[in-house]
Specification:
Blueprint lengths: L8 H27 L7 H15 L6 H17 L4 H17 L1
Keywords: Membrane, Transmembrane, Transmembrane helix
């Protein structure tokens, strides 16, 4: 008896759609965070764009988990030094989504 959910193509498709939606959300929130006045364009604040692009292209799936972990850590570090409350809030949401996508 096969109990794996990954054997079904329908389940795989649904998981890919969910992951794609979450990645798109991280990408949009990262861009929104950069648009907030007072948020510097540092690596800590732009890393979500690079990780989202990597996941969207499904190129580096082997090291993908490391990238999401790095996004989680770097976003927290960047949010600690953020100047505006909106940037901190978006950073918290992005960190939560990155932890989910780990």
């Amino acid at each position: 008896m096969k109990l794996s959910i990954f054997g079904r193509s329908v389940t795989k498709s649904r998981l890919h759609i969910i992951i794609g939606g979450l990645v798109f959300l991280v990408f949009i929130l990262t861009v929104a965070r950069l648009a907030v006045k007072g948020t510097p364009s540092t690596r800590a604040n732009t890393w979500g764009i690079a990780v989202g692009s990597t996941k969207a292209n499904m190129i580096l799936n082997i090291v993908d988990t490391i990238f999401w972990l790095a996004l989680f850590i770097i976003t927290i570090m960047g949010s600690i030094g953020a100047a505006s409350e909106a940037s901190r809030a978006l950073g918290g949401i992005i960190a939560t989504l990155a932890a989910t996508l780990l």
